[in-house]
Amino acid sequence: MTIYLINPSHVSFGIGVITPRWLYVLASATPADFGELRLIDETLNSFDTAAITAGDIVGIGIHTGNALRGYEIGTAARAAGAYVVFGGIHATLYPDEARDLGGAHAVVTGDGEQAWPMALRDCASGRPRPQYDGGRIEGDKFLPGRWDLLPAGRYMWASVQTVRGCPKHCSFCSVWRTDGQRPRQRYVEGVLEEIVDLRRRGFRFIALADDNFYPVTLDDLRMAARRQDSSQLERLEAIRAERFALMEALAGLPSDTVFFTQITMEAAEDPEFLEAMRRAHIKGALVGVEAVTPEGLKDVYKNFNESGEALVERLRGFRRHGIHVLGSFIFGLPSDRAETFDASLTVAERAELTFAQFVMLTPFPGTLDFAAWEKSLGAEPPRVTGVPVSRHWLIPQANRPKVYMNHPVMSADEIRRRTQAVWDRFYSFRSIWSRSRGAVRSVKARLAFVLISKIYRQMYANTGIATDSARINRSARWARLMAIPCRRLFAGRPMPELQVASVRSRQKAGRMLEMLNGDLTR
Ligand code: SF4
Question: Which residues of 161-192 are buried (b: 16+ CB within 10 A; e: fewer)?
């Protein structure tokens, strides 16, 4: 019997940017006695389902974008006589769909670490249940990835998770609804062991694949301190203390380690936190800017962000602590007007962002925006190839329209055209070259910066917001070619000798040095 874990994709690049963590985590959760385990990531190469035979067990993880390809694989696997189990965010939101259209014998909803082995056991004994509710497990139950199963030389960045859940409630995001609003943090020692494992294997660029790396803000602490009951304050302080303990442990890693994470911009108000990030080698962060006006922020329930000049200052705050920002902007908010596009580009440039992405407001399933958009379509939504657009992910790729939130004054085409123009201007050769001066030092590093910027733009702008399939295919081909030299830029030297103990002692030595420096400068 073979057990497959499959990450479906209708487009393959040969090289992956970030390791699909869930594949390797579920590999850890797979008991060794079930037979051969095969991990398939279709973002690298497409998978021929003819390999699946009767009695195999096929686990397929889907998000909305790859659900249809997942259903194709599931249907073929079931026809071949295999047991089919679906999981992932989309299957959690639409378990019936996976059964009706994807050939699922079982669907795992929520976290998979504990539910997947249960589903496996039942499939192996021929009695799968239709659903396994994985719920939201606590941080001490998070598993590391089985990185020994990684194919060599195929990914640019590794990924490690340190916290699930986000206390915010942005209207366009499903994270707080699927992963919950209570942060669930993983034990420091577990995170450190996994990172040391990855460094031994030659990964020095590692994405901290967290929902929000800064789950407790100074404002949260101030508000809790005003309450009579001190229990909330104690809880928040404990979460914050754990964050600092983690960053202190990461500080002992070899100095060429580079982490990238996702964080809210409130962290810029917290110099102590930013300083700890810098020491922990967290050199880049995706920051959801979303909108540059107070009206835009209100549109997406993100009032905790700044706008105008204060926004520029906050974003620059990251750079002052050596943290490069990938700023994420959303276009097509109800309050956006033609001038919003230029205003956003100006903020992106003035705020010294190293990278930026400009996305169009899209109703993703599981979000508040999606619920409002679905309702606005009425009982009989328009159909494409017989499928209602409210289930657009089920429309075959060649005919699938891009769906966006309706806008009061601009058409989707106008928003797309203006968004594309902002990408073009932010990523013009001249702009990238000038940004490279502030980002890196040597000419070689500046050329690498240009290459990475261009590939980033190609992978995300042209395959993400373009509607013309010829352009998408051209971009995918170009990205495929560029991905190979790009991966080499990120490859590190394997460090088989690296031990957690040596990281811990370097961390202690670093702390003593800092204390000494502090004493000498007093
Ligand atoms: S967009 Fe970011 S801050 Fe907002 S809910 Fe999602 S994860 Fe949290």
Answer: bbbbbbbbebbbbbbbbbbbeebbbbebebbb
**Is 170 near ligand 1, meaning CB less than 6 Å away?**
yes
Angle between helices 231-250 and 188-200 (to 10 degrees): 20
Task: Please name the residue that has the structure tokens 């994470």.
Answer: 261
DSSP class per residue in 110-154: S--TTHHHHHHHHHHTT---SEEE-----GGG-----GGGPPTT-
* Distance between Cα 222 and ligand 1 center (Å): 21
Q: Is 173 in the pocket of ligand 1 (CB under 6 A)?
A: yes
Tens digit of each residue's pLDDT (9 = 90 or more) over 445-487: 999 899 889 888 877 765 554 545 565 566 667 667 777 777 8
* Cβ 345 under 6 angstroms from ligand 1: no
Bin 12: left if φ > 0, else alpha if -120 < ψ < 50, else beta.
Answer: beta
Would the CB of 166 count as within 6 Å of ligand 1? yes
> How far, CA to CA in Å, does 448 sit from each of 426, 482, 484?
17, 12, 13
Residue (of 32, 29, 54, 52) closest to 40 by Cα position: 52
d(CA 215, CA 331): 26
| pLDDT tens, residue by residue, 239-250 | 999 999 999 999
Beta bridge partners of residue 121, listed in sequence order: none
Q: What is the pTM of this model?
A: 0.91
Residues 6+ apart with CB under 8 A from 120: 3, 30, 31, 34, 57, 59, 85
